[in-house]
Write a structure and sequence with these properties.
single chain; 174 residues; mainly alpha; 2 domains; two-stranded antiparallel sheet; 7% strand; rod-shaped
Length: 174
């Protein structure tokens, strides 16, 4: 004799085997951890889709959802990793050297990624783009779009060089 659980999924009532319920609950909890905390709409959509899949496969309202049906549904929806890149920790503890989101990012001339003065390397790191693409864009702007070489020289004078101890905008110590 198996224990069953009555649950509401996507505003519809279902009866699940206890092992099917535990598996589905763990699956949904893992997805919930990977979504941003206020993303209730996505969770509601996922639950609605699960209810639709269950209704397609169950013949009567008295039929119990089995572990195999839950696993088939999970395979159809995808892994929790498919819903987000990283799990969202409800109580994050900062154990890394990453600065808090309140700390403003700083723009520096790069010490490591430089061709002339490190301007393009520093801008690329600040903007999270490829430094080679930025160099090509800068060259194009100087040659064809009328951007003066004086702008580059002015940036060279204004933007400070990256500190030797590391960057304050999330870079690693060098």
């Amino acid at each position: 004799m198996k224990e069953t659980v009555n649950v509401s999924i996507g505003s519809q009532a279902f009866t699940l085997d206890r092992d099917a319920y535990d598996t589905l609950r763990n699956y949904l909890d893992e997805i919930r951890r990977r979504l941003s905390p206020g993303d209730l709409e996505t969770m509601a959509d996922i639950e609605t889709r699960i209810a639709e899949i269950f209704n397609e496969r169950i013949n009567t309202t008295f039929q119990v959802v089995s572990l195999e049906l839950v696993r088939t549904t999970m395979r159809q929806l995808g892994t929790p990793d498919d819903f987000s890149a990283e799990p969202q920790d409800p109580n994050p503890e900062r154990t890394t050297s990453e600065p808090s989101s309140d700390t403003p990012r700083r723009l520096y001339r790069s010490r490591n990624d430089r061709s002339i003065a490190g301007i393009c390397g520093g801008l690329a790191e600040y903007l999270h783009i490829d430094s080679t693409a930025l160099r090509v864009l800068m060259l194009f702007l100087i040659l064809f779009a009328g951007l003066s070489i004086w702008v580059y020289l002015l940036l060279w004078l204004i933007i400070p060089e990256e500190p030797l101890t590391g960057r304050t905008n999330g870079g690693t110590a060098r």
